[in-house]
Amino acid sequence: MTDLNEIKSFQDLINNDEKPVLVDFYADWCGPCKMVSPVIKQLADEYKGKMITVKVDTDKKPAISAKYKITSIPTIMMFYKGKSVMRLQGAQPYEAIKGSIDSNWPL
User: What's the total number of domains in the chain?
Assistant: First the structure.
C-alpha cells in the first residue's frame, strides 16, 4: 500500500495507470478506519500485480478528500482510468469489500 504525498501524484495515478486503483480514505484518529485497515492490507496482498492500493489520510490531504466528496470515513473507492467504479462508506467486513471489488472489476 502507498501513502500519497501530492494531489498531482494521486491524479496521475488514477488517470494514467492501467490497473484499477483501490483508495482507502481514512484518518489516524478514526476507530472504524483502524478496523478496516487490516482488511485493506489483505486485499492489497490478494490483488497484488492486478490492482494498486493506496491510503489517503483525509486530515493531511483535504483537497483530495474535498474533490471526491468524502464526508465520512472510512470511504473506500476504486478508480479505473480516471473514473470512480466503486464507493463504500463505513467499516465493511472483508466479504463485503471483496464482493464489491469483484462485482465492479473494470477489466
Answer: 1
Say how far apart CA 59 and CA 63 lie, in whole Å: 10
Catalytic residue chosen out of the listed positions 13, 14, 33, 44: 33
Kindly name the residue from 30, 52, 76, 97 that is annotated as catalytic. Answer: 30
- Residuewise pLDDT in 10s, the chain (107 residues): 554 554 458 888 899 888 999 999 999 999 999 999 999 999 999 999 999 999 999 999 999 999 999 999 999 999 999 899 999 999 999 999 999 999 998 75
**Dihedral sign of CA atoms 68, 36, 100, 102 in order:** positive
Q: What is the pTM of this model?
A: 0.89
Q: Is residue 33 part of a domain?
A: yes
Q: Which domain holds residue 56?
A: 2-100
Residue 30 annotated as catalytic: yes
CATH number of the structural domain spanning residue 50: 3.40.30.10
